[in-house]
């Protein structure tokens, strides 16, 4: 079983090398010693409070991958309704019941970027931020999210 | 004779014995034997499970002209409710019916024509240029390599999701063709897959349930009529088809659930302790009050006040009650205690009677065996008809058994019917009192006649000469008919007078059957064609 997930991850690895130039927003890196551990750097989408930030994701790939979804979480602090503020856990359907083996680590990154641009305020993991959005306080939400992006996701100047 | 006596059949050696007599006597005493009563339940043994499922599959296959695997997918989705399936089919059409269940009503010709155009690459393992014979296309049109399909099936089957294995493509809700699954996985796994599919017929089906026996007898019971009936499995277990616990009529399932819980947990004992004992404020040991005086003394020497539980001492003696708070709380506390005590008394009253009859039932199980043994031996020794044909004895013993059971459960019913737990606001106190008296009258009648029945059955009829035995038969038959009638009336009273006006809650009672709990007949594939 592991052999096939390994083969598939290896394919993805090669694909990533080729696509690196094609998708400048995503940088997927495989752990040197363990092909089941990956990290990704994704750019905050423009016209969102995350713009200008670079966010780090950690992937833990299960043995039955791609028949089972990878576990992904934010390593960089982010203020987002669907991300647990402390653990970085992400609430996203394709990482749970809507997972299909046709997804790749790369396409999961794309889905996460899409989630950053379009939060789901109704299934919040971060209640404060969910409440702000739901009560219509977009400004309040944006300023909080922006603040955390500046604090945690932007390289220090100088 | 009636199937009810099947179990004694082998004991009846002289089968040619006048059947006229049974019928004659049954009618004579006016027993409610409705012979036209069709069976309402069937036992499906492990071996017959496939056939039982097949029978339904074939119906759907024929009516909708679909393949077996499609029929199964539909039936699993619609929980084996064929009537619902046909209704939906008539109302919404085949396409809607299919797409909801995850089936595509694709024309296979269309699929194969598009096939030429796709390249052989698998999106899962990301292999390109695969030979087309290692690719498999599902009916939804999605195509992946056999290796990936196989692993997908293995993971899903091991996760217990056999019944609805979805296509691997994103957002595709199609259910994989079971033939493809069987073809690609190992024989052992295919067997497991098969078992899940077969068991779905029981597990997803409202009208079929596993017999709750432990250890499991392997049988399932299918209800033909949707009533709240009780049923007896081939293994002998009698149970309530709705809640799967032991048969409990005339209690409703909820009443029975509450009762078993109440009897199991210690809350009532705890209650008793709070009512009848107080903890010593110094050593905290429980002390019970045996005299009228409210000034208590613990073994440890501590004095305290029974009413408020607080220590009495130099400044808190019973005569100088400085700072003692019991006066203020007394009314409340006493009322509370009285209430708890009343509840407990009530429970004890009903539980005592329930338990007494349940215990009698156990003793009478012995009696039943003795009596039957006696009857058999006797029938071999003597030649008079009253001895050779001892159906009147088995009749009497069975009647005793059934009515004793009902009597025992009637106390549980009464506990909830006239208590405050379930029906507090359903009737006025006066109404409650009237109904309670009505029911208790019936209960008393039943109780007294059940005891009479029990007593008659203990008579040494094997030592009787002919005339005395005939007299006992007459007595027994009459009593039996009387008890049957009282039971019937009790059920009618429950249905019409007591539960009938109740507004809230679902309290269906398994109907009264004069002949006792129905023994499910064994399902045989060919017999069933006619009944369905
Ligand atoms: Zn493949
Ligand atoms: Zn599909
Ligand atoms: Zn059984
Ligand atoms: Zn029940």
Question: Overview of this structure, please?
Answer:
The complex is a heterodimer of chains A (158) and B (532). With 158 residues, chain A is an alpha+beta fold. Chain A has one domain: Ubiquitin Conjugating Enzyme (Roll), CATH 3.10.110.10. Chain A has helices spanning 2-19, 105-117, 127-134, 138-153; strands spanning 26-30, 37-43, 54-60, 71-74. Chain A has a 4-stranded antiparallel beta sheet, covered by helices on one side. In chain A, strand 1 and strand 2 form a beta hairpin. The model of chain A has no long low-confidence stretch (mean pLDDT 87). Chain B has 532 residues and is of the alpha+beta class. Chain B has helices at residues 19-28, 49-64, 68-77, 82-101, 108-115, 146-158, 178-184, 187-203, 253-264, 267-276, 326-381, 385-388, 391-417, 429-457, 466-498, 525-531; strands at residues 41-44, 135-137, 143-145, 208-210, 220-223, 230-232, 238-240, 277-279, 286-288, 295-297, 303-305, 311-312, 518-519, 521-522. The longest helix of chain B has 56 residues, at 326-381. Chains A and B meet through helix 1 of A and helix 6 of B. The complex binds zinc ion (ZN) (4 copies). One zinc ion binds at residues 138, 140, 142, 167, 169, 172, 174 of chain B. One zinc ion (ZN) binds at residues 211, 213, 217, 219, 233, 235, 237 of chain B.
SSE map:
The complex is a heterodimer of chains A (158) and B (532).
Chain A: H1 2-19, E1 26-30, E2 37-43, E3 54-60, E4 71-74, H2 105-117, H3 127-134, H4 138-153
Antiparallel strand pairs in A: 1-2, 2-3, 3-4
Chain B: H1 19-28, E1 41-44, H2 49-64, H3 68-77, H4 82-101, H5 108-115, E2 135-137, E3 143-145, H6 146-158, H7 178-184, H8 187-203, E4 208-210, E5 220-223, E6 230-232, E7 238-240, H9 253-264, H10 267-276, E8 277-279, E9 286-288, E10 295-297, E11 303-305, E12 311-312, H11 326-381, H12 385-388, H13 391-417, H14 429-457, H15 466-498, E13 518-519, E14 521-522, H16 525-531
Parallel strand pairs in B: 1-14, 6-13
Antiparallel strand pairs in B: 1-5, 2-3, 4-5, 6-7, 8-9, 10-11, 11-12
Helix pairs in contact in B: 2-3, 3-4, 10-11, 11-13, 13-14, 13-15, 14-15
The structure holds zinc ion (4 copies).
